[in-house]
Amino acid sequence: MSPNSFNFGLLVITLYLLSCNTLKLQSNQVKLSEQASYFIQAVPDELVGHTSLQKLQVAEQDNQHEFLLQTELAEDSIQMVGFSLSGIELFQLTWRQNDEVVVSKMSDIPAQQLLAYYQLCNWPLVDIKNGLIGIDVLLSNGHSAKREFFESGSLSFSVTQNKHITQLIHHLDNYQITIETLD
């Protein structure tokens, strides 16, 4: 076997393994439940150029997971990278306007759902409403920092925002995500 054929074989194997970790979603539609979904929306003008680093704590029944999320918003794209608290990359997500969501998947974290929840927490209400199917969003009575999402009249999940802490509580699936924006 010549050194060139060995290098080519190694390259083919490496590319195959890398391709197994990349998921291209053919749609900008993200399922929120059996009946509800959300179409990823363009970055609002007021958020273009925004970058953030956040610590996420996901708590469900007896399990709790923590990881870091770095997000960059451009005029026509969104980049997200998830890291373990020790700095190991868990996933990369890229979304380009009028294109598909591409996730380099290295963990069981549903990155495309995180993107949808990121928008549902941070985008202006008008933009969110444009992307919702089978679910409605309302501001909580007397509480402009609390968004409530209803499916068929039942509260599905809610988002409460304070200065540096956002909390998403999924009432139907019994989990919550606490998002702390780091400086």
Question: Span between N and C termini?
Answer: 55 Å
Number of helices: 3
Strand pairing plus helix content: what structural class?
A: alpha+beta
Radius of gyration: 19 Å
The major β-sheet equals:
11 strands, antiparallel
Element-by-element helix/strand order? HEEEEEEEEHHEEEEEE
Beta-strand percentage range: over 45%
Mean pLDDT: 83
Strand line-up of the largest beta sheet: 1-8-7-6-5-4-14-13-12-11-10
Instruction: Assign an overall shape.
Output: globular
Describe what you observe in this structure.
With 183 residues, the protein is an alpha+beta fold. 20% of the residues lie in helices and 49% in strands. The protein has helices at 3-20, 111-122, 125-131; strands at 22-25, 29-31, 37-39, 51-60, 63-73, 77-83, 89-96, 101-105, 132-133, 136-140, 143-151, 154-161, 165-170, 175-182. The strands form two sheets. It has an eleven-stranded antiparallel beta sheet. The longest helix has 18 residues, at 3-20. The relative contact order is 0.18. The model is unreliable at 1-20 (pLDDT under 50).
Topology:
Elements: H1 3-20, E1 22-25, E2 29-31, E3 37-39, E4 51-60, E5 63-73, E6 77-83, E7 89-96, E8 101-105, H2 111-122, H3 125-131, E9 132-133, E10 136-140, E11 143-151, E12 154-161, E13 165-170, E14 175-182
Antiparallel strand pairs: 1-8, 2-3, 3-9, 4-5, 4-14, 5-6, 6-7, 7-8, 10-11, 11-12, 12-13, 13-14
Summarize the structure.
The protein contains three helices and 14 strands. It has helices at residues 3-20, 111-122, 125-131; strands spanning 22-25, 29-31, 37-39, 51-60, 63-73, 77-83, 89-96, 101-105, 132-133, 136-140, 143-151, 154-161, 165-170, 175-182. A hairpin with a 4-residue loop joins strand 7 (89-96) and strand 8.
